[in-house]
Amino acid sequence: MAILVVGSVAFDNIETPHGKVDDCLGGAATHFSLAASYFTPVRVIAVVGKDFTAEHEAVFTRRGIDIQGIERSNGLSFHWTGAYSGNMDEAKTLGTDLNVFETFDPKIPEAYKDSEFLFLANIDPVLQARVRMQMPNVRMVCGDTMNYWIADHAANLAKVLRELDVLLINDGEARMLAGERNLVLAAQKVLSMGPKTLVVKHGEYGATAFFGEHSFPGKAKVSHPFRAPALPLAEVVDPTGAGDSFAGGFYGYLASQPELTPAVLRTAMFYGGVMGSFAVERFGTERLQNVSRQEIDDRFKLFQEISHLDYAGA
Amino acid sequence: MAILVVGSVAFDNIETPHGKVDDCLGGAATHFSLAASYFTPVRVIAVVGKDFTAEHEAVFTRRGIDIQGIERSNGLSFHWTGAYSGNMDEAKTLGTDLNVFETFDPKIPEAYKDSEFLFLANIDPVLQARVRMQMPNVRMVCGDTMNYWIADHAANLAKVLRELDVLLINDGEARMLAGERNLVLAAQKVLSMGPKTLVVKHGEYGATAFFGEHSFPGKAKVSHPFRAPALPLAEVVDPTGAGDSFAGGFYGYLASQPELTPAVLRTAMFYGGVMGSFAVERFGTERLQNVSRQEIDDRFKLFQEISHLDYAGA
Questions:
Q1: How near does any CA of chain A get to the CA of B126, in Å?
Q2: What is the pLDDT of residues B197-214, one digit of tens each?
Q3: Spelled out in words, what is the top-level CATH class assigned to the domain B3-305?
Q4: What is the pLDDT of residues B220-237, one digit of tens each?
Q5: Which residues lie across from B285 on neighbouring strands?
Q6: What is the pTM of this model?
Q7: How far apart are the CA of A77 and the nearest CA of chain B, in angstroms?
Q8: Which of A134, A188, A191 is nearest to A161 (CA)?
Q9: A297 in reach of chain B (CB within 8 A)
Q10: What is the CATH number assigned to the segment(s) A3-164+236-291?
Q11: Residue B257 with chain A: CB contacts under 8 Å
Q12: Contacts A–B by Cβ distance under 8 A
């Protein structure tokens, strides 16, 4: 079933120990859409400027992604400049030019209205809430946020959290949102803010899903979290978009399944890790544009192999 | 089969956000022995002072641990003072009094000579090498070390590494030993120094085993690492000895098995995590003294449940 994603489509200047790229197509909605497109139809709501050309359109359309919701505006697209060094576990933001995103008012095309899955990528929670309100009948809402919104837009963010089925954030964001250093206690606190399930991404250490009272319709509460590994990688070329790619794999798989069960959610966690592991192999979205379904399924098996006691191939 | 462990038996003063204890029985060999004792016979080589009483002996002997190799010396036992704060992911050492350990010269009782498994806990690599030399016919040698020996005793440590089947260290130590930030590259470098298998402990994120060319006798090289989860815990009372307890569960299980296969090593990684998760529930060795085999096996199942896609109980 189709996912509607709202978020940034941007251009990135990125520097890592492996090199430097300028004006590389990026943005949370871009990474998310490409990763999810291997599992389910995806529709994008975003705004871009005159610098978004037919070549950039084709990155989406070649993967069958519906971009009629990408609004064209005068001016330049959102632009991010960042650098990674050392262990590359955190980007240093060197510049953020919102440009056309500054006045973005998301409009949902009529053809998108029947989307059953909504993903609110990391943007202003006011915009997230506005999109959520225009899609009252979706089956599931999943969202992301970041330190900036947690610190300075808490009240707006709180409204979004109350509407979420799944919140996907990283360790630091979870601890910050909860004001609590212990991750389990932090997760309990975040779940009490609204999300039925919380997925915490640990970068190179994988991700953990924590479940609230009503994560699974018609089932008793699942009391234990679930941990998915990340693939130990000898070379991380560019971590930009790894989290959004995780979200795309995770949510894309969920949306492709007829029912949300604990088993489906576990599998989605693994597909999240799989898509994140591909994303970092090349700069920008290069790898996510060209991975094959066979490669995805082979890597999924590899994730089982590195984490399961009884994996048949062992 | 019996494990011979050489390492510290000590008294700890520990402060954590959950309280403060003084003169608490500790030391790497103590935590290791208690954890391993649930799986296989354990024999200890260490030195203690007059402050080591019948009450402390009983902590070992109640678990069936052979302590005839614990030498009694004049003076005081090794004493460590440390504190944890915030996320408790690293101890701040406030004081180290080697005391009787300063002149420790490990002697191996005749009755220990047939031990088939040797564990070289974190002590001066000169002592580790001396014990290794006195046990030429062991089936397997596993060892630990720490930043102090890596930084200032590199040549002595190098000799020990060449003799190891398994090296168990944490993330920071692996990166420091290799001089390399990427964990996969660091692991490759450490494996090239001698150990056939490297187990890297990630604290609350679990542990990863990396395999060298000859990890498994008679088998082709296992090219992929293996990741074991840690249990997400709402309360960590005292992390002291968690790594040694991991090592005890890991090696104790290995020593209890007739053959070292990839499946046995995977299971050992999980038992390591299980024993580490018990260790941190109480100050010092309190929890490891009193856990039951049933609790251990229940928690092992829990580790499967939180990490396996197809766990039957899901």
A1: 32
A2: 999 999 999 999 999 987
A3: alpha beta
A4: 666 799 999 999 999 999
A5: none
A6: 0.95
A7: 34
A8: A191
A9: no
A10: 3.40.1190.20
A11: none
A12: 92
